[in-house]
Amino acid sequence: MASFLQQFFNGLVGGAFLALLALGLSVIFGMLGVVNFAHGAFYMLGAFGAYVLLTDAGVSFWVALIVVPVALGLFGMLLERLLIHRLTALDPLYNFLLTFGLTLVLQDLVRRQYGITSQPYPQPAGLDKPVDLGLFEYPGYQVFVLVVAAAVCAGVWLLITRTRVGMVVRAATERPELTRAMGINVGLWVTPVFGFGVALAGLAGVLAAPMRAINPLMGADLIITVFAVVVIGGLGSIVGSVLAGFGIGVASALCNLYLPGLSQTLVFVLMAAVLLWRPAGLLGREEVPA
Amino acid sequence: MRKAAAITTAAALLLAACGQGGPSGGGGKISGDKIVLAVLNDQSGVYSDLSGKNSVEAVKMAVEDFKAQYGDKAVTKNIEVVTADHQNKPEIANSKAQELFDRQGADTILDVPTSSAALAVATVASQKKKLYLNIGAATTDLTGKACNKYTFHYAYDTYMLAKSTGTTVTSQGGKNWYIVYPDYAFGQDMQKNFTTAIEGAGGKVVAKDPTPFPNDNFSTFLLKAPNMNPKPDVLGTMQAGGDLVNLVKQYNEFGLKGKGIKLSVGLMFITDIHALGPDAFAGTTFTDAWYWNLDERSRAWADKFQQRTKIRPSFAHAGNYSAAMQYLQAVQRAGSDDADEVVKKLENYSFDDVFARNAKIRAEDHRVVHDVYLAEVKPKSEVTTDWDYEKILRTVPADEAFRPVADSAAAGCKMG
Amino acid sequence: MKRWVLLGIGLAVVLALPWFVYPPVASDIVAFALLAIALDLLIGFTGLLSFGHAAFWGTAAYATGLVAIHAGVPFPVAVLAGAVAAAALAVPIGYLSVKRSGIYFAMVTLAFAQMVYFIANQWRGVTGGENGLQGVPRELFGVDLSDPFYFYYAALPLVLVGLFAAWRIVRSPFGRVLVAIRDNPQRARALGYPVQRYKLLAFVLSATLAGLAGGLHAVGHGFASLQDVHWTTSGKAVLMVVLGGIGTLWGPGLGAALVVQLEDYLATAGFVGIDMVVGAVFVVVVLLFRRGVWGTVALWSARLGARRRASRAASAAGAGPSPSPQQRDADRESVDATRKGD
Questions:
Q1: Same-domain status, C327 and C178
Q2: What number is the ipTM of this complex?
Q3: CB-based contact A63:A48 (threshold 8 Å)
Q4: Are C331 and C275 in the same domain?
């Protein structure tokens, strides 16, 4: 029993990253209608940001946890203003392709600078000991990741549903014309929301740095799983994406335990099942059939 | 204006390829007066650090040393080194290999990591009847069902890695193993070979789990390990590259070393250790086909290499140097670069150079066998000079490490 | 008239290609051209961005390889078998994927293609896994096709069949319904067309042609590998379509030629930054050249033609009446020669 719980907890930790990334992707999609292929690249930049700050400026993990997402958020806002904004009036496919191209460029730039081999990053002091969770012990840092991810997801949900800012953003997403008619400058919110989504990806990256390999390709294969996660959860739904993220994490971990050969295809099989049963995703809004 | 520029660029690109067409006129043309060595490898992807452009440097070093050794008595002084990046794509490797042989007059192709690319080039070499010395790939198929007269497998393979590590670690006390391997051909081969070697040495594989590939979360497997019955003495991991780094980080996080489970890695390069730092890998055992700090001879060469490239050489770099040098030596002995003549001079040749000690080039399957080394990573406190990460626990002699000839034949090698 | 001239030139280029371009690269160009054109059927004419076409290209590559190795049939038969395999795979994937549209469709096809990749990786006994399916022969009634130059011409008829099929699909009533669906799915449905079925059919046809291309590619290289089912191959196909011109049908063929040449050039140029170049091309084309090379040329020549007509009309009647409404409409139509764009 303890072993099963251990694996379940394990899955939650793995799912935390998926949830954070799916959350950022959903937020960006909800507001801009843009599917940000570069989300994985921003995650990678988050991890590299933490690494660079540590090796070049001696900045600790704790500071990086704040600084890097903010910096990436600003970088994201810049990209949105300069590049993505030009295409939002068009079919969202164009922005998908644009962000795909950006991914290749960002990954290669990082590779040219740092090489393809992974970079070292130590665990933050104080968290590098195992924590006794009653039924079993677990690495302290991973518990920390889970706590932070859950807190951030909950915080974003509260932000969107309980605050005026969140209300405005939601209104602007679902009824842009009506919102504009109420006198709210919808356009003003697009760039900050994009930046916010990118910052979430960057945060996931910083959290990943002490426990995952830091190399230019770390986001590349992850992003496709994240796409499947948001399709399962429902692309416009924040809650759906987060739940699907944690859920897939747990499912993968348990699958690794009982049916190791299947774990890679699992998320895609689930995606196919969701498509058959509920094409809009588990918690997504029903799309007008086209 | 911009549109015109776009069209012109397109036209220019198409024209740039002009003049390369036409039928190739069959098998190899022999370049009487010039020897061309071609290095075909990954220069921008996952193998670029452990081999890549620096292997081209190593080959150039071999050419210079060869010329210096023979001076005017060299079979020719006109030796050229060309290179292409196959980007780990077998179709590019295939096209580039043909182009290197046809258009650039390459007499031999070296390196070629990535099994699918390596096997594709073996077919090309056989068709064009030109030499191919593979350093970078691990698949035993090169001396198995894909073996042919012009292909030589130079540095390492999955069998050698498994036999050396599995046998030595087991006989040194690591009786119970838990093997974790990435679920693709390389990982599966390594797992099978390790299991055979471990059981052959009297050990036991408690469990073997395939992991997704690529994968960044090994917690499931690492959590299982201490609870197994019997508890494993060694965790054998066949992950490589970024996956290996992920696993090692998490292995340390879960404190498995403290729980008495040592780590043994199927395939590792010194660049991996350098990437994470020795402390992350301290105590880990693995087989290295060569180590720069082995003895005076290797150190001297490594110093020269470092002067040119700023890094210490991995076994791949040294392997490329050695293969290039041995090829040139064979040409010297044959007096010509005719592929069949050179093959005859390479087969059954025994030698001992900076990379390959007590080496022999087997005629039956074109496997180059040489001594290999079971190494243990030192903790940072014991590292006295830069890059000196390895402590050699045992030298595994050539005959013991590599797959016996009979097994190659059983695996389908028909040397024609 | 101009259309036939252009097609004639295109045919001449395809026939003469191996004389100008290194033959293995020429074979790659036509194979990828067929893939890109097949993809454009879906992207440009049906409005569905498939980001997972490597699943069909690659599956056909493996199927062709297996048939060629084990059945010893002439390679065109093996290639057709590959195309059939791709079509068979496209039915279930297409059925599930067309339930979504737009960006969802892209993500879903990407995810399904990943599934195919992982299955190909796992099913090592059949596909050879990482090592690839090696030793695919080029059998054609005993003719020696080992020289890639002659293989190109042996394979060309199949390529031309594929291109012809694409052309016929686009020019047929079926093709026009696809365009209607692309432009306004609700109206198409209101007019009584079973939109989902049309989309599925377009998907399968596109996949079949992609499979034809993949099979030829496998025979040309003598092997099929995981690279053929990898998502970067899907991305490469999309790049070729976008670069060449979405919805222009032949533009993607030109895009294929450019991308294959670029990759080939960069492999020997010693420039270590292929992904960066590809990514930058993507970004630039999507931002500035949405019509792609072909579309841009078409627009340019249409504008030139309109300007010439306007100046001719103006000079003929002094500062007389501007072009007739019909003439203006005709000009606008030729300007709208490529639809996807602003």
A1: no
A2: 0.83
A3: no
A4: no
| Inter-chain touch B44–A111, beta carbons under 8 Å | yes
Q: Decide if A241 contacts A131 (C-beta within 8 A).
A: no
How many domains in chain A? 1
* pLDDT tens digit sequence for B109-124: 999 999 999 999 999 9
Q: Do C103 and A35 touch (CB under 8 A)?
A: yes
* Amino acid symbol at C272: V
Cβ atoms of B371 and B134 closer than 8 Å: no
Torsion of CA C323, C325, C331, C337, to 10 degrees: 180
CB distance C235–A265 less than 8 Å? no
Which secondary-structure segment (H or E) carries B210?
strand B204-211
Q: How confident is the model at residue C302 (pLDDT cuts 50, 70, 90)?
A: confident
B216 touches A223 (CB < 8 A): no
Same structural domain, C143 and C225: yes
* Nearest CB partner across the interface for B49, out of A14, A116, A139: A116
Structure tokens belonging to residue A202 = 């960057």
First to last CA, chain C: 28
Note whether C262 contacts B: Cβ–Cβ < 8 A: yes
In this predicted model, what pLDDT tens digit does every residue of A185-215 receive, in sequence order? 877 888 999 999 999 999 999 999 998 889 9
Q: Is residue C2 part of a domain?
A: no
| pLDDT surpassing 90 at residue B276 | no
Within-domain flag for A112: yes
Q: For residue C333, is pLDDT > 70?
A: no
Q: A268 or A261, which is more confident?
A: A268
Determine, for residues C287 and A271 on separate chains, whether the beta-carbon distance falls below 8 Å. no
Q: For C297, which of B7, B98, B183 is closest by C-beta distance?
A: B7
Report yes or no on A235 lying in a domain: no
| Section B399-404 average pLDDT | 93
Q: Where are the domains of chain B?
A: 28-156+295-370, 159-288+373-401
Tens-place pLDDT, residues C264-291: 888 887 777 788 888 999 899 999 888 8
d(CA C296, CA A56) in angstroms, rounded, equals: 47
Between positions 215 and 254 of C, the ones with CB within 8 A of A are 231, 235, 238, 242
Q: Check if CATH label 3.40.50.2300 holds for domain B28-156+295-370.
A: yes
* CATH number of the domain enclosing C217: 1.10.3470
Is the model more confident about B229 or about A177? B229
Q: Is residue A288 part of a domain?
A: no
pLDDT at C339: 44
CATH placement of domain B159-288+373-401: 3.40.50.2300
User: Same domain, yes or no, for C159 and C58?
Assistant: yes
Please list the residues that pair with B38 across neighbouring strands: B82, B109
**Tally of domains within chain C:** 2
- The domain of C250 spans 17-279
Q: Which residues of C touch B116 (CB under 8 A)?
A: 128, 130-132, 134, 223, 225-227
In a domain, C115, yes or no: yes
- What does pTM read for this prediction? 0.86
Q: What pLDDT is recorded for position B1?
A: 38
Q: Which residue range forms the structural domain that includes residue A145?
A: 7-216
Does any domain span residue A157? yes
B105: left (phi over 0), alpha (psi -120 to 50) or beta: left
The answer to whether B366 and B153 are in contact (CB under 8 A) is yes
Q: CB–CB of B214 and A221 under 8 A? A: yes
Partner residue facing A117 (CB), from B220, B255, B271: B271
Are B272 and A117 in contact (CB < 8 Å)? yes
